[in-house]
Amino acid sequence: DDLDALLRPWYYSKSLTDPINTAADKWNLLPAFLRVKGLIKQHTDSFDYFVDIELKKILKANEFIFTDDKRKWIKFVDIRVGKPCRIEDARAGYVQTEVTPNECRLRDMTYAAPIYLDFIYPRQAGNVRKTNVLIGRLPMMLRSSKCVLKGRSESEMACLNECAVDPGGYFIVRGQEKVILVQEQLSKNRVIVESFKGVIQASVTSHTANVKTKTYVLLKKGHIYLKHNSLSEDIPVAVMLRAMGVQSDHEILLLAAGNDAQYQDEFAPNLELAALEGVFTQEQALDFIATRLKPDRFASRRQERTPKQQALEKLAGTIIPHVEVEGMNFRPKALYVAFMTRRVLMAMNDPKLVDDRDYVGNKRLELAGQMLSLLFEDLFKDCVRQIKGNMDKILKKANPTQEFDPLRLVEQIESRITSGMERAISTGNWTLKRFRMDRAGVTHVLSRLSYISALGMMTRITSQFEKTRKVSGPRALQPSQFGMLCTSDTPEGEACGLVKNLALMTHITTADDEAPVRKIIYILGAEDVTSVSGTEIYGNGAYIVFINGTPAALTRQPKQFLLGFRKFRRMGRISEFVSIFINHHHNGVHIATDEGRVCRPLIVVEKGKSKVTARFLESLRKGAMDFDDALSRGLVEYLDVNEENDSNIAVYEKDINEHTTHLEIEPFTILGAVAGLIPYPHHNQSPRNTYQCAMGKQAIGAIAYNQFTRIDTLLYLMVYPQKPMVTTRTIELVKYDKLPAGQNAVVAVMSYSGYDIEDALVLNKASCDRGFGRCQIFKKISMPLKAYGNGYTDRLDDRDPSNTRHRKIGKDGLVEVGSELENGDMYMLKASPINQSQAIPQKDQKWSPMHMSYKLPDPSYADKVMITANEANTTILKIQTRQTRRPEIGDKFSSRHGQKGVVGLLAEQADMPFSDSGVVPDIIMNPHGFPSRMTVGKMLELVSGKAGVLTGKQEYGTPFGGSKVEDMGSILVKHGFSYSGKDHLTSGITGESLPFYVFFGPIYYQKLKHMVQDKMHSRSTGPRAILTRQPTEGRSRQGGLRLGEMERDCLIAYGASQLLLERLMISSDAHDVDVCQGCGMMGYNGWCQSCGSSRGVTKMTMPYAAKLLIQELMSMNVKASLQLADEFPREE
Predict the structure, then answer these.
(1) Which helix (H) or strand (E) holds 800?
(2) Any idea where the DNA-directed RNA polymerase subunit 2 hybrid-binding domain is (predicted)?
(3) Taking CA 919 as the corner, what is the angle to CA 768 and CA 890, rounded to the nearest 5 degrees?
């Protein structure tokens, strides 16, 4: 196993901090962690949670369908997801052979598994149970527990034509790879206090199975009110508390303000307000609220309820619905409202107590499982409604012709669930009526430019924040993102700081059960908060214990409570992802078990000693232990952002003191998978690392082991990818060295020829001849043979040997594999039936040829030809074309430090400088790229790479560690080179020694996908747009090159009026019109329509767009008349 090879202690030059005893090898926890969690695992974990647990929960919530006839009903018993299979197998009910993801990609199918349902319904003889009824197909996430690839060895993967290194975690829908990106949301069911336009308000978004609403407690004109959508006006808080059964003024005062005299004074006016409204009892309060309820949109047909009952139901079910009311016991809800009120009072006194929306602890990340669960629930509820409607329809008939058959009704919903799931994933539009949720762009096509671009996409986080708003808050790098989100990997431009990436060791939690946590709270001696009076709640040293934001208990020894709780977690009595922390500002102990929190593992430190010992690491290395053992033994634990704030974390073992609670596993894990490829990033200026994160995804390399069995729309492959001489830990952990994207080039840093100005590179022509920077480009041509209503389908014609354009085509009407396609060559002789609707005999049908010809300017080769059929049994023809390109002037290259440049010159090897040992550089780079950019990491890479070449091993440029410059320098000296990496060069042109030393050595260079051949464009005459008669736009439409407003301003400044006329009219859209000198209107054929005569009608030339504007203005009743003057007036 590659990871085992990784685990051998080869790391000879330890790090920047040498004297470390056991923890020198503590990074061994990293590969062990990445086996069970991290990077892609959160997607698969979340999906598995949905398939195994959420589906059953959704079924349980909607298990009964009752009809109007009480004797007829359906009860759903169980729901299961099978193994992925083809649609024909799913309907037949048995699977002949497994379907592989690769087959789905090639055949444009959906990689999906059947969903089976068991249900019971009544008959005369007794209840009947139906099992394994197919109700739809669920698109299956690759590498999840039900996937064909789960747990396969590398050789088994190869038999399935799948790549063992491919991350998985995406879906294949209609042949396209789709990723559900991680979505960032504000956390649900938590109180957030913010100052909004000077108004202090505490808001909570409650999310339960049925409703999603937002409740506010806000300060308005010195009084505190509760605001909610279902209320027509804001209700004073004192009235609200009274309606919830808190009767006495004294108790209301204590619950909201506690024993603090200042708070009591500030809250007192609210009690007076309630008295002014004449509200003294619960009854009066309910009457007060009942008159301010908005009428229900869906008024129920049940018996009319009194306004009081309506008010009570609203309080129980719609206002703060996530705090449940059991048996009309409103105490927990009253406490919650009081708690929100108290937070507002505190924020009035101390502005520091306002929450920060951008703080990572207040955020939740939604994964594929949660998104699919919302979607499935919506579809399932729809289907249940449909089944009930159909059942009622059948039972309404006095003498039903067919017997009541639920099986048929349940089977009818199959296509609805299948197409609903498929449509959502393939379009990325999540539209749920229940939650008024309408999101676009949830899914994206997996970017397969390079292996790293696919991996980077799996760890990407998008927020629902509008990108156009110029707000710096959400975009800034927050201190709370340390270790959770990558500090460098974010795009430039409008999405900067809004699109983020997960760090290397981040895990996103799934939901855990609250019940065991509640038990443990009471075991640790906390008392139930509902049975406690207001005096005790805010008594001295009393802390409220919140579970997921809901008050649950009261403790008087928060410190001991915390320690006890953590002990239980380390013993494994409760889930390792439950977090607990104390907030001393508002005397609360917060426990979180909800899904979507970001957390990361840290080593536990007790009594100043790390609990991970050399002995444990030894057994980890031998494979006797794994990461889960470290967890269950309490050596390592997961902390989320809130709990991190409660901890004291040392980075290295030497930093541990008596207050330290945890130790970092490795400091370089604060970076993500993409930024981890950069060697020595801690020596670069920060934006350079950000640039490399963007460019590393555009580098051409290898994309997967199965890259030659795929037919992708566009595939870039490097002909000779190499693994980098200077590697990092992350490169080995994410297997970049198995699928690299770049080559080690020998670089001389000097100026040469003047073709290297502004970052241009001079390439050695001989290196390009030997394959440096050479790449292949594969493109797909796909064509379905359509079937028509009368039973005819498109067909392929025979070739015509006499036609020269058919010479590349084989007997079957398709291009032969390996033949060269040039512009105008035919590659497919498709023909369509002329009559597509009436059924007519074969001999009468006429066919119209629709022969396809190759349109691109540069020739390419037919690499593969494939004929297959998709799920709808439509024949699909796919042709893959191949082009090999060598580097040319204008192609873009980049090193791993954000130093990008285009090729400025391909120089002959004879003219290039060479070193004393006869080495000629592959690339010459201008030294002006260094001073202003401060990419010292690039220099260190050169020195380390040179030392590695001499010793024959890869050096390490791991962030905050790696091979040290002094060691590298001494290796160079030992092998007879200069300590600083500079060499003596001889000019290839004159043969004389160069009068200076040149910085000379290997640097890893990436070839980027931006090539001159794809961008080059010019035009003389060509197509025009129909409406404006101006040249079209864009390279693909042979468009013109636009002279824009700013260029026009330049020409005006020069006074070049004839050039302006030529560019903006003659070469663009000159048009002759007839104009009447009398009225200034346009006429035609020498006749003026408005004057009704041909006198004074002359011809003139104007831009067609101007003529169009005048006519469009006329259509709006605006007359633009043309005043004519003779261009060359005659001397009278």
Answers:
(1) none
(2) 674-1037
(3) 30
CATH number for 1120: 3.90.1800.10
Residue 918 φ then ψ, to 5°: 85, 10
CB 249 within 8 A of CB 237: no
Token readout for 904 is 């400025």
Task: Decide which of 972, 992, 1007 is a domain's last residue.
Answer: 1007
Backbone φ and ψ of 114, nearest 5°: -75, 145
* Helix, coil or strand: residue 264: helix
Q: Which two tokens stand for residue 233?
A: 């006006």
Q: Quote the longest CA-to-CA distance of the chain.
A: 117
User: 971: Cβ–Cβ under 8 A, 6 or more apart, which residues?
Assistant: 947, 950, 951
List alpha helices for 358-493, DSSP H. Answer: 368-396, 406-411, 414-427, 451-458
What is the residue whose two structure tokens read 């082009």?
883
Judgement on whether residues 160 and 197 belong to the same structural domain of the protein: no
- Identify the sign of the CA torsion 552, 554, 559, 564: negative
Model confidence pLDDT, tens digit, residues 732-755? 999 999 999 999 999 999 999 889
Q: What is the DSSP string of 508-569?
A: EPPP--SHHHHHHHHHTT-EEGGG--HHHHTSTT-EEEEETTEEEEEES-HHHHHHHHHHHH
* Contact criterion met (CB below 8 Å) for 523 and 513: no
Per the CB < 8 A criterion, the answer to whether 895 and 1005 are in contact is yes
Tokens 């979180």 sit on residue? 592
Of 436, 25, 524, 449, give the one whose Cα is nearest residue 213. 436
Q: Among all chains, which residue has been given the structure tokens 């040829």?
A: 849
What pLDDT digit, counting tens, does each position of 318-370 carry?
888 888 888 788 888 888 898 899 889 888 888 888 888 889 999 999 999 99
* Residue from 978, 951, 782, 999 nearest 880 by CA: 782
Label residues 957-985 b or e (16+ Cβ within 10 Å = b).
Answer: bbbbbbbbbeebbebbeeeebeeebbbeb
Q: What is the pLDDT of residue 770?
A: 94
What lies within 8 Å, CB to CB, of 41 at 6+ separation is 507
* In a domain? residue 1037: no
* β-pair partners for 264: none
* Kind and range of the H or E run holding 48: helix 41-49
How many Cα atoms occupy the beta-carbon half-sphere of 313 within 13 Å? 8
Same domain, 152 and 61: yes
Co-location of 197 and 175 in the same domain: no
pLDDT of residue 46: 93
Close Cβ partners of 448 (under 8 Å, ≥ 6 residues apart): 177, 454, 703, 704, 712, 715
Do 219 and 170 belong together in one domain?
no
Tell me the whole-structure pTM to 2 decimals.
0.90
Secondary structure of residue 780 in the 3-state scheme: strand
| Same domain assignment for residues 394 and 429 | yes
**What domain range is 129 assigned to?**
41-183+364-455
How many CB atoms are located within 10 Å of the residue 316 CB? 19
Residues with catalytic function: 759
Q: Are residues 163 and 221 in the same domain?
A: no
Q: If you average pLDDT over residues 83-92, what whole number do you get?
A: 76
Q: Which two tokens stand for residue 607?
A: 């009594």
Q: Which CATH number is 266's domain given?
A: 3.90.1110.10
Residue 1030 lies in a domain: no
- Give the count of alpha carbons within 13 A of 198, CB side only: 3
Amino acid in the structure at residue 583: N
Q: Pick the closest to residue 1024 from 988, 1068, 1056 (CA basis).
A: 1068
Q: How many CB atoms lie within 10 A of CB 1128?
A: 5
